[in-house]
Task: structure prediction
Amino acid sequence: MATVLGLLLLAGATIGGLSLLLPHPSEFDVPALWSNVALAYAAAVALLLLRNRLPAWAMLVIVVVGTPIVVTRAVYYGHDPSGYYTIWYLWIGVYAFFFFGLRWGLVQMAAIGAAYGWALTEISGPTPVARWVVTVGSIVVAGLLVDALAGDLANPVWNYRADL
Result:
């Protein structure tokens, strides 16, 4: 779990850095976004170095508390509530449903929903409620699919692919 999360943070930090090096909207708060990139790299390195020492409950806490904060900072400082950085909420949701199951995946979705809801109240843009419903609803649907697929992997009786 820690290795996968560390690699996701590493990928997110790298993509975030590239988004700042490439042409980007002038509204970006570039210094704040670079600090987010540094924070994500630091968290990635820490997770990868400590991966064999972290208990599963620590991973749950890191995911529920830490990752929505990092992604929401990027959304907030990008000043675009439906643009560049909201896709990372999907990564978090899929990760949570796969590794922690339905109950904790839904807890993660509550954290993401609250964080993204806050960002939408702080960043001006059209149709914030519709943006929230489409974004959070889509992540919930993806998470439920991942949870069902993970259940199929764990229970060969329900593995429909064997019948194809």
Notes: The chain is about 75% helix and 0% strand.
